[in-house]
Amino acid sequence: MACTVFNLKWENLNFQDRITYILDTKNNERREIPMNDIVYRTLLAVEKIPDSPWVFCKKNGERYGNVRKAFEGAKKRAAIVDFRFHDLRYPFASHLVMAGVDLKTVQELLGYKSGA
């Protein structure tokens, strides 16, 4: 399970303009994702490990690998079945729409090329 958040490097964050740059996308295109206040404050609070380029990493600075084991364990403990990590995108989209965000913006935030 490749997860973009674990590929995030400090150099991909522009705190001044509140933009996150995603360079390794499935379309091999650079994406710019705006940081809302919660994301901005959360990222500012992340402890930077010296000499590690990774935003989210182990205490020794190494990047996290596959999160499948942890995700599957959490699903089991919560008695959740028939649910994938990727399925977390759908509640995100639903909350945006319910908050009045237009569909074009939802499409762009989710990284869809056409049709949200």
> Quick one: biggest sheet?
3 strands, antiparallel
Mean residue pLDDT: 84
Give the strand order, joined by hyphens, for the main sheet: 1-2-3
Unreliable stretches: none
> What does the overall shape look like?
globular
What does the oligomeric state look like here? single chain
Fold and architecture overview:
This protein is an alpha+beta fold and 116 residues long. Helix content is 32%, strand content 9%. The chain contains four helices and three strands; from the N terminus they run E-E-E-H-H-H-H. Strands 1-2-3 form a three-stranded antiparallel sheet, with no helix packed on it. Strand 2 and strand 3 (31-34) form a beta hairpin. The two termini are 23 Å apart. The mean pLDDT is 84.
Topology:
Elements: E1 13-14, E2 19-22, E3 31-34, H1 37-45, H2 68-77, H3 89-98, H4 103-110
Antiparallel strand pairs: 1-2, 2-3
Descriptive labels:
single chain; 4 helices; about 120 residues; 3-stranded antiparallel beta sheet; alpha+beta
Summarize the structure.
The chain is α+β, with helices and mostly antiparallel strands. The protein is built from four helices and three strands; from the N terminus they run βββαααα. The two termini are 23 Å apart.
